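Propose amino acids for all 721 sites.
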C-alpha cells in the first residue's frame, strides 16, 4: 500500500489529523469538512504504516449503514479485506460482546433484544402487575424514565427516591419491577445493551484488560451524539493505554432527546490526557450559497464552540423556496422536480421532521411510478405483519416469551377472548410463571370454560406441532411454513386487496432477508478473532439482527431510488439535491420544542438538513396543513426567516420563478423580525408582532400606540428603526 497515496487527497489540517502522533485526538469541525473521511483515512494509515493490525482497531459509527460504508471504503483504500476490523454502532458492538460473554453478563445465552414497541408492551404488563393505573402512569412515561436512567448509567437501585415526589417513586417501582421481569425472561432493551456491557467490563477487570489490550485504537464518528453511558464505556475501554480518535461537530448535536450531549466533546478535551485538538475549516461538500445559508442560520444559536467554515466552491445556484398551498401540493412539487431531474435518483433526498410526513410523498411517488426508498421511519422489522411473523418465531424458539405469546395468541383470530387472557395473566402473575405455562396449567386444572379451554388447547398444539415440523428446516423455510400453516396469509387477505398484497410482499421480503442472513452467516470467512461471537443459533442471531437493524439495509441498495428520511436519519449523509420539507412553525421547529434549548436543537437539525446538500437545496413549506383532523393555517418556519433572503429564490410549480424574492419576511429596507421597531407614516412607531402570507399577500401585524394593526407589506412603506 502506497502510504503517500493515502494522504494525497487530504488538505493540511486533515493530514495532520490522519498522521497525528500517538495519543488522543479530537477533530472538531463543521459539516462536510471531511471528519468521516479523516477517520477512515486514519484507520487506513494506521494499517498501512503497520502501526496497528485490524484486530487492534475498534471503529464506532452512528448507523449500520455507515459501518458498512466504512468497511467498503477501507477495502478499496487498502485493496484488502477488513474482516477483522470491528466497525459498528455502539449498540451492535455491545450486543456482540454480550453474546460472547453472556455468562459473565448474567444473561441467558439466547437472550432476546426488545425493541421500543416490545419494551412498551412489557412495561404495560409490569404496570398492571403492580396494580397501578396505566392511564395515569403510562408505559410511555415509564419507558422514558427507565431509558433516561440507563442512558445516564443508573439502575433503579442507584436512583434516589424522594419522599415528596410520588410520581418519581412510582416510576422507580416500575423500573425495579421491569428490571426483574427482563432479567427473569432474558430480555434486553436497547439502553440495557450499553449499560450491561459497561457493567460487564466494570465488574470483570480481567475481561476489561483483555479488551483494553486488544483495542489499542478506538475511533468514534459523530461524537457529539454520545450519551453518558457511551462516554463512560469508552473511557473504561480506553484505560491508560488505548488511543482515542474522536470526531464531532457540536452544531450537529441532535439527539439530546435521547440524552446525548455535545458537552461530551468538551469533557473529552478536558478529561483525557493531552488531547490533540484539530480543527477542519474547509467544507468540500456544498456550494458557497448553501454553506452561507447554513452558517447564517446556525449563527442564531448561542453557546456554540464556534467555528469558521468556508469553501473554495463557487456560489452555485440560489436556494429555492417553494410555497405550497397544501401538503399535497408540496408533494406534487417535489415529485415534479424529481421527474425532471436527469441525474441519478439516489442523489436526491427528501428530508422531513416527522415520520408521518413521508406518507404523501410515498403516495405521490407510487402514483407516478417513481422508485423511492424510506430510511429509518417505519422500520421494516416494525411492520405489523413482520412483527407477527417474528412473534411466531420467537414463541417457537422460547415458549416463555410473553410478548410473543400475547401478540399471536389470537392472531389470526381463534376465538381466544380477552377474558381468557385475563385469567392467564392472573395465573402468571400469581405463580410467577410465563403465559405459556399459565395456559397449560389453566387447561390442566380446568380453570377455564370448556370452549376457552379447547381453543387454547388448539393453539398450544399448533405451536408444538409447528415446532416439530419446522425444527429441521433452515430459517427462511421456517418462515414459509409458518406463513401457510398458521393461517396468517388468509388473515391478511381479509383486509383490502392492496393492503393484503403489501403485507404478503413484505413477508416474502422477510423470507429473502432470512435467506440472505443465512448466506452471510455461512460465508463468514475464518478470522483470526479466535473467539468468534457467532456461537448461538441462527434464529437467535436473526432475531437480534431484526431488532438492531434500523431498517437501513432494506431494499435493493443498487436500485436507483429517491431517498426519503427524517432529518435525524440524514446525519452524516450527502446528496446532490435536497428537499427540506414542511418548514412551518409548529412542525419544524416542532411544537414540542419551542423553548429556548429545544429550539436550538431544532435549529441544529435544520443546519444538518441544509448541509446534506451538495448543489441544490429546495426549501418547501405549505400555507396550510391537515393536522389532527383539521386543515390548519401554517406559518412559515422562523428558520426560513433566519436565512439570508437575498440568497433565496421563490419558485412556482410550473418552473416559472419569481425573482427576486419579495416575501413576507422582507421590507424594502431589509428583513423584519418579531419584536423589531418600525415606523409608519400615519400610525407612528410600533413593534412587529407577527407575519402571515407571502409575496404580494404578505401581511404584518404591528402594535402601535393606537392598537394592533394588520398591514399589507407591499403598501405599508414601513421604516425600520
Ligand atoms: P458531516 O459533518 O456531515 O458528517 P464530514 O465532516 O464527516 O461531514 P465527510 O462526509 O467526511 O465530511 O466529507 C464531506 C465530503 O467532502 C465528502 O464527499 C468527501 O469525500 C469530501 N472531501 C473531504 N475532504 C476532502 C478533500 N480534502 N478533498 C476533496 N474532497 C474532500
Ligand atoms: Mg461525517
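Proposal:
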Amino acid at each position: 500500500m502506497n502510504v503517500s497515496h493515502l494522504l494525497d487527497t487530504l488538505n493540511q489540517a486533515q493530514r495532520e489529523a490522519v498522521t497525528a502522533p500517538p495519543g488522543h485526538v479530537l477533530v472538531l469541525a463543521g459539516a462536510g469538512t471531511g471528519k468521516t473521511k479523516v477517520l477512515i483515512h486514519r484507520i487506513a494509515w494506521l494499517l498501512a504504516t503497520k502501526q496497528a493490525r485490524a484486530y487492534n482497531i475498534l471503529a464506532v459509527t452512528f448507523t449500520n449503514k455507515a459501518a458498512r460504508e466504512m468497511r467498503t471504503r477501507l477495502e478499496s483504500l487498502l485493496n484488502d479485506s477488513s474482516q477483522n476490523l470491528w466497525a459498528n454502532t455502539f449498540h451492535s458492538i455491545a450486543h456482540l460482546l454480550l453474546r460472547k460473554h453472556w455468562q459473565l453478563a448474567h444473561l441467558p445465552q439466547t437472550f432476546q433484544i426488545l425493541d421500543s414497541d416490545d419494551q412498551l408492551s412489557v412495561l404495560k404488563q409490569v404496570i398492571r402487575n403492580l396494580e397501578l393505573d396505566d392511564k395515569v402512569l403510562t408505559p410511555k412515561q415509564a419507558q422514558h424514565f427507565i431509558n433516561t436512567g440507563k442512558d445516564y448509567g443508573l439502575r433503579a437501585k442507584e436512583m434516589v427516591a424522594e419522599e415528596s415526589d410520588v410520581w418519581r417513586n412510582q416510576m422507580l417501582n416500575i423500573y425495579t419491577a421491569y428490571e426483574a421481569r427482563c432479567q427473569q425472561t432474558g430480555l434486553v432493551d436497547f439502553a440495557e445493551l450499553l449499560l450491561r456491557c459497561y457493567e460487564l467490563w466494570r465488574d470483570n477487570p480481567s475481561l476489561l484488560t483483555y479488551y483494553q489490550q486488544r483495542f489499542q485504537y478506538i475511533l468514534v464518528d459523530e461524537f457529539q451524539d454520545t450519551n453518558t453511558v457511551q462516554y463512560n464505556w469508552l473511557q473504561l475501554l480506553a484505560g491508560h493505554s488505548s488511543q482515542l480518535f474522536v470526531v464531532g461537530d457540536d452544531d450537529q448535536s441532535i439527539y439530546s432527546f435521547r440524552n446525548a450531549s455535545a458537552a461530551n466533546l468538551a469533557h473529552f478535551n478536558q478529561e483525557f490526557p493531552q488531547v490533540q485538538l484539530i480543527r477542519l475549516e474547509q467544507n468540500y461538500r456544498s456550494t458557497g450559497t448553501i454553506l452561507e445559508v447554513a452558517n447564517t442560520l446556525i449563527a442564531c444559536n448561542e453557546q456554540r464552540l464556534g467555528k469558521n467554515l468556508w469553501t473554495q466552491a463557487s456560489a452555485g445556484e440560489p436556494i429555492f423556496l417553494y410555497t405550497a398551498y397544501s401538503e399535497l401540493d408540496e408533494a406534487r412539487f417535489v415529485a415534479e422536480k424529481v421527474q425532471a431531474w436527469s441525474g441519478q435518483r439516489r442523489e436526491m433526498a427528501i428530508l422531513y421532521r416527522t415520520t408521518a410526513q413521508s406518507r404523501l410523498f410515498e403516495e405521490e411517488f407510487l402514483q407516478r411510478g417513481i422508485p423511492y426508498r424510506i430510511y429509518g421511519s417505519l422500520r421494516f422489522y416494525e411492520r405489523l405483519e413482520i412483527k407477527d411473523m417474528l412473534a411466531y418465531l420467537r414463541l417457537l424458539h422460547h415458549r416463555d416469551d410473553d410478548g410473543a405469546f400475547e401478540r399471536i395468541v389470537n392472531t389470526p383470530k381463534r376465538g381466544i377472548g380477552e377474558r381468557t387472557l385475563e385469567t392467564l395473566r392472573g395465573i402468571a402473575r400469581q405463580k410467577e410463571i410465563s403465559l405459556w405455562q399459565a395456559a397449560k396449567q389453566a387447561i390442566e386444572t380446568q380453570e377455564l370454560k370448556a370452549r376457552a379451554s379447547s381453543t387454547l388447547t388448539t393453539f398450544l398444539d399448533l405451536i408444538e406441532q409447528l415446532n416439530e415440523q419446522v425444527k429441521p428446516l433452515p430459517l427462511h423455510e421456517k418462515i414459509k411454513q409458518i406463513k401457510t400453516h398458521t393461517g396468517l396469509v388468509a388473515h391478511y387477505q381479509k383486509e383490502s386487496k392492496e393492503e393484503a398484497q403489501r403485507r404478503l410482499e413484505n413477508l416474502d421480503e422477510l423470507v429473502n432477508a432470512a435467506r440472505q442472513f443465512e448466506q452471510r452467516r455461512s460465508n463468514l470467512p475464518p478470522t483470526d478473532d479466535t473467539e468468534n461471537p457467532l456461537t448461538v443459533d441462527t434464529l437467535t442471531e436473526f432475531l437480534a439482527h431484526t431488532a438492531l437493524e434500523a431498517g437501513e439495509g432494506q431494499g435493493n441498495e443498487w436500485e436507483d431510488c429517491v431517498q426519503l428520511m427524517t432529518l435525524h436519519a440524514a446525519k452524516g449523509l450527502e446528496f446532490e439535491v435536497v428537499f427540506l420539507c414542511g418548514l412551518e412553525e409548529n412542525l419544524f421547529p416542532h411544537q414540542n420544542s419551542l423553548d429556548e434549548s429545544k429550539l436550538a436543537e431544532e435549529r441544529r437539525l435544520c443546519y444538518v438538513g441544509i448541509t446534506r446538500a451538495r448543489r441544490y437545496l429546495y426549501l418547501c413549506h405549505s400555507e396550510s396543513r391537515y393536522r389532527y383532523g383539521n386543515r390548519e393555517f401554517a406559518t412559515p418556519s422562523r428558520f426560513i426567516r433566519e436565512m439570508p433572503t437575498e440568497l433565496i429564490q421563490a419558485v412556482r410549480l410550473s418552473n416559472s420563478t419569481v425573482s427576486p424574492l419579495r416575501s413576507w419576511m422582507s421590507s424594502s429596507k431589509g428583513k423584519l423580525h418579531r419584536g423589531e421597531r418600525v415606523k409608519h407614516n400615519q400610525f407612528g412607531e410600533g413593534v412587529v408582532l407577527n407575519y402571515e402570507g407571502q409575496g404580494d399577500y404578505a401581511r404584518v401585524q404591528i402594535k402601535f400606540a393606537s392598537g394592533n394593526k394588520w398591514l399589507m407589506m407591499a403598501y405599508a412603506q414601513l421604516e425600520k428603526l
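Residues 527-534, 654-669 have pLDDT under 50 and may be disordered. The two ends are 65 Å apart (CA to CA).
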